[in-house]
Each structure stands twice: as structure tokens, then as C-alpha cells.
Specification:
167 residues; mainly alpha; 69% helix
Length: 167
């Protein structure tokens, strides 16, 4: 296989993981395994949550594909890489950027990142498994992206018309 094929497999797996994560979040975390996910919505004290167990659930297939692909020297390695890269993005976007479990990436003037944060905040307004919305992580509804762009444009207009500023 060519390098482009490996990159394509990794990228396709990464994108597919958003669909897998959305489905798992909606139907499993807000369904049969709500017991593990509840503390994430109810903000129980402590750095770690029962919800962190889902990290292992997603890490197992990644490790399997890495291992099997490395042994066989085939495409499965690149599937494992796509899953692992999605897991890394989850850690950065969800745990660090959105929930501030590590105080980093606190402010942004990026409309996409603001849309992600807003969609997640809307998701967390529901403290029970029912009536949830916005189950994805990287593909927020377009309405939140448009709202963020409008807010940033208004902020920029205010900044450019502030006293003492040049037009």
C-alpha cells in the first residue's frame, strides 16, 4: 500500500470515530451505561470520574489494531492510529479545552472552537439521560458555529469603534 493509502485509512478511521463516539454517547452512555456517565453530567467532586472508564473502552480496540497490524504488517495498524488520534483529540478538546480539567486553552477567538464549547454546554444542561442533544464532539451543529461567528464579528466591531482606536 502507498503512504497516501495509509494516511487515508487513518483519516477515515478518525472521522468514523466521531460517528462511533456520537452513537455510543447517545445510545450507550445515555442508555444502559448511564451509571458510568452520570457523574460527568452531575459534576461530582474529584478529578477522576466513573465516566473516565470509557477511555479504556475506546483504547482497547485501538491497542488491538495497533498490535495486530504491527504483527501482520498490514492496514490494521493505521486503523489503530486513527482511533488513537481521535482519543488524543478527545483528551485535548473535551477534557482540557471544554471541561478545563487541566487549566489550559481557556480562551479562544476561533468560531469553530467556540461552537464546540457551546454545543457541549447545551448537552450538559440535561442532568438526566433523557432529552439530550449535541452528542458529538468535533461536529457541532452549524447553528452554534454561525452564532459564534456573529458574536466574534460583533466583538471585532466593538473593538474597532472603541474610543482611542484607529478606524
Amino acid at each position: 500500500m502507498s503512504v497516501l493509502a495509509y494516511i487515508g485509512i487513518t483519516a477515515a478511521t478518525f472521522c468514523l470515530m466521531e460517528v462511533v463516539a456520537w452513537s455510543t454517547h447517545k445510545y450507550v452512555m445515555h442508555g444502559a451505561l448511564w451509571f458510568f456517565h452520570r457523574d460527568h453530567h452531575n459534576h461530582e467532586p474529584g478529578f477522576f470520574e466513573k465516566n473516565d472508564a470509557f477511555f479504556l473502552i475506546f483504547a482497547i480496540p485501538s491497542a488491538y489494531f495497533f498490535y495486530a497490524g504491527a504483527l501482520a504488517g498490514d492496514f490494521r495498524f493505521w486503523i489503530g492510529l486513527g482511533i488513537a488520534l481521535y482519543g488524543c483529540s478527545y483528551l485535548i478538546v473535551h477534557d482540557i479545552f471544554i471541561h478545563q480539567r487541566i487549566k489550559w486553552l481557556r480562551r479562544t477567538d476561533n468560531a469553530y472552537l467556540r461552537a464546540i464549547r457551546k454545543a457541549h454546554l447545551v448537552h450538559h444542561k440535561h442532568l438526566d439521560p433523557e432529552d439530550g442533544e449535541c452528542f458529538g464532539m468535533l461536529w457541532p451543529p452549524l447553528k452554534f458555529y454561525r452564532e459564534a461567528k456573529t458574536q466574534l464579528a460583533a466583538k471585532e466591531r466593538t473593538r474597532s469603534t472603541a474610543p482611542g482606536q484607529r478606524s
